[in-house]
Amino acid sequence: MLDLSFFNWEIISRFVAKGFFFSVQLTVIAMLGGIFFGTLLAMMRLSDWKWLEYPAAVYVNGMRSIPLVMVILWFYLLSPFAIGRPIGAELSAIITFTAFEAAYFSEIMRAGIQSIPRGQVWAGQALGLNYWQTMGTIVLPQAFRNMLPVLLTQTIILFQDTSLVYAIGAYDLLKGFESAGKNYGRPIEAYLLAAVVYFVICFGLSYLVKRLQARIAVPGKL
Global pTM? Predict the structure, then answer.
């Protein structure tokens, strides 16, 4: 019979809080880094210069074709051979997630940029702006607005994926529940509570994204 009475504030402060803070930290850093580098990759893929387009396409398509857990393991295991020393599970996870999410955010941003009417680009060129200036001052602000709900939805998925850092021993939210379950002899209850916490967080954020999408939707395009 399941016994959830062991779960109290001591469990949260001793085991769960540390993992939760790292999961949030990893999510925020990977989101910001992923959007930044993803935007650059999207602009490279949409440029007229093949020497920018082809490497970006290879990176995005290649990264999106590999399971995230394999990328996490490869980077963690191979990086010490490249730099001569281990960098730690937490830093390795941050770098890996940022690099991986950049490929996914790139496709979101590319779709957002392509959703902007071509006339906007021509208007920028008529004003004497080059490609990068047109993107930065005219196209990207509109693309970000259009893609904001999708970007936030991808961030929720990113938060769920942070549980994969267990593969390299990083202490995330799931690891916190697992440690509590082992120490108190309640592994089933701990995993059940972890599932409930993930559901509550992700469902709540999904609901907020849905409300935001309805608020910023352009009339006539609902």
Answer: 0.87
Q: What angle do CA 159, 155, 94 make, to 5 degrees?
A: 60
DSSP 83-146: HSS---HHHHHHHHHHHHHHHHHHHHHHHHHHTS-HHHHHHHHHTT--HHHHIIIIIHHHHHHH
Query: Residue 220: which pLDDT band, with cuts at 50, 70 and 90?
Result: very low
Q: Per-residue pLDDT tens for 60-79?
A: 999 999 999 999 999 999 98
Q: Which residue in this structure is represented by tokens 């690891």?
A: 175
Query: 76 near 168, Cβ under 8 Å?
Result: yes
Q: What are phi and psi of 195, to 5 degrees?
A: -65, -40
Here the tokens at position 96 are 């890996």
The answer to whether residues 103 and 63 touch, using CB atoms and an 8 Å cutoff, is yes
Q: In the numeric block, which tokens belong to residue 57?
A: 């396409």
